[in-house]
Amino acid sequence: MSDSSKKNTRESITPEMEKKHIFGELIIKEKADKHYEAGVGAMSQSQFDKAVSCFSKAILLQSQQTEFYVQRAEAYLQLCDFQSAALDYKHACSLQPQTEAYPQRLAFIYYLQGQCLFDLGKFLEALDSFTKAAELKPCFRPYHMRSSACLTALGRYSDCLRSVSNWLEKDSQSADLLILRARLHHQLNQMTLCYHDLRSALRLKPCCPVAHALLKRLKEAAENAHQAAVDKALKGELSDALRKINSALKYDPSKAQYYLFRGILYRRLRDFTAAIEDLVLAAEFYGVEEETPQEHMQDDSEDLEEDAQTQLALTYNDFAIQCFSRGLQSEAIKLLNKAIEKQRNASELFINRGDCFFKLCEWSFALADYQQAEEMDPDNTVIWLRLAVIHNTMGLHSYDDKKYQEAADKFSVAIRYNPGEVHYYENRAKAYNKVAKMEEAKKDAISVLILEPTNDQMVPLLSSLLPGCSLTDIMSCATAQSVKTLLVEKIQAFKIAASKVSRIGRMALAKDDSHTQTSSQKLQAEDGPCVTPEVHCKLVKRKQLNQAVKRALQQRQPLDYDGPRLAPIHPVREESSAQQQAYVWRKFGGFGLNC
């Protein structure tokens, strides 16, 4: 319509017509008010159907009156017609969007609708209603909780879990919400997350019986899996044992003993990196387990930590042996350094590191380690043999450098540690001959022929020292008889010393009390060479296992091996009455010693 047309229309409306229009509006308003008042009266008399009819007539006359919609919505609400009530409140919100009371009332109507639907088992429709209520009043927790209940009833645990997690991120920590999320994790078989939520809930609400009950179930399941892992390990089924202990840690991820046990399993399976990680965790968790009685907590923590440190040393040692077997002596030394930090009183570690240095031709470092081992274990013939080899080797280098007296002195030390090795006498005889110690050279040459009659190396030397004498005359003279007597005495003394060390080992084994071993220590007893009897006795201190584990331990086949080897020791069959062998540290093959 053009501007001129609008002007003509306004000019055509006379004052009389305007009066009639105003009069008509007043009549409509009056009628609408009468219907509204009738509706209010009907509401007061609980005549809700009549009230709805009256408010509807009022709305037909005046559709922009917010209060008419509000009152009709309340009447619908009394009739449990939630859908119609919600529509009227939505209309009221559109007419007066600045009024906060209307959205809140609408949210409450959705909540009531959802609750009725939930009670009827219509969970999907109820979820829709609760979701609408939560959207209108996002900070009101009960609406969110009812949505979660619907999701749970529908089996949509993941969606429910996501909803609860979002609420926890927005809101401050709530014990009830944490317990709800823990139960959802439990339903989804996420036991580790369930455990952590329960712990967090108990820190906020220490006396919550629901959390305690669920946590007890987790711990019982963890211990059952642990016992099953012990049984599998004692039967040699290490992979199955690993699966069981993994299950135990899923139920109780802060149990230090389980990490120790799994670390030992990883070590036996030669997964040394994983073993180290678990053993470090075990050491960290000791002393923080919450259910240990206060009077025993400190002693148990110290003992378990000592076990963890010992196992770490064993793992580093075994890892070093693997590196040594692959020609990685430098890496093996680094690992043995870490092992020695954990177990400074284990002579076997110094022996192994000395072997690494020997392989790298670091004679002085090798000698220092062997000497350190000897200080710790002065009667160990294994150390004597290595000291003999290193001194002989150093003597040969001195001989090559024309330092003959120094070479002779080193050969003498080698002979002192191992008087039955013919090559040491042969080398010293040559060195003495160079420094014109003819008598000493003659005795060493005779010693060589006594130990090895077929040796032809010393015949020219003896002929030059004793010209004109036959070999028969030389070997039958008084000097030869004296040398033979002294040599036999030295060798016999060495054998007696070696047999004493062997008897000490058997005595330590006889005193082993298997009834006081922990499950992890019993696992160690099934392993190959690990620790000496002395170290083993430190591990065999405390704790009890069930009778089934004890019987399994007593009936298992023993392990046997003789001396240090580079390769793992394989079990051999023995009579059933044979006693259990004590542990010894795994050692390198060294440098050809049969010891």
Protein described:
Keywords: Repeat, TPR repeat. This protein is 74% helix and 0% strand. The chain is mostly helical. The protein has a domain at 388-476: Serine Threonine Protein Phosphatase 5, Tetratricopeptide repeat (Alpha Horseshoe). The longest helix has 33 residues, at 478-510.
Considering the chains and any ligands shown, give keywords for the structure.
TPR-like_helical_dom_sf, TPR_rpt, 0% strand, Serine Threonine Protein Phosphatase 5, Tetratricopeptide repeat, 595 residues, Tetratricopeptide repeat protein 16, repeat, TPR repeat, mainly alpha
| CATH fold topology of the domain at 388-476 | Serine Threonine Protein Phosphatase 5, Tetratricopeptide repeat
Termini separation (Å)? 117 Å
Which percent range describes the beta-strand content? under 5%
**What's the SSE pattern?**
HHHHHHHHHHHHHHHHHHHHHHHHHHHHH
Number of helices: 29
Q: What share of residues is helical? A: over 70%
Envelope shape: rod-shaped
Biggest sheet features: none
SSE order and pairing:
Layout: H1 3-12, H2 15-44, H3 48-61, H4 66-78, H5 82-95, H6 101-119, H7 123-136, H8 141-153, H9 157-170, H10 175-187, H11 191-204, H12 209-234, H13 238-251, H14 256-268, H15 272-285, H16 294-325, H17 329-342, H18 347-359, H19 363-376, H20 381-400, H21 404-417, H22 422-434, H23 438-451, H24 459-465, H25 471-476, H26 478-510, H27 519-526, H28 533-539, H29 547-555
Helix pairs in contact: 2-3, 2-4, 3-4, 4-5, 5-6, 6-7, 7-8, 8-9, 9-10, 10-11, 11-12, 12-13, 12-27, 12-29, 13-14, 14-15, 14-16, 14-27, 15-16, 16-17, 17-18, 18-19, 19-20, 20-21, 21-22, 22-23, 23-24, 23-26
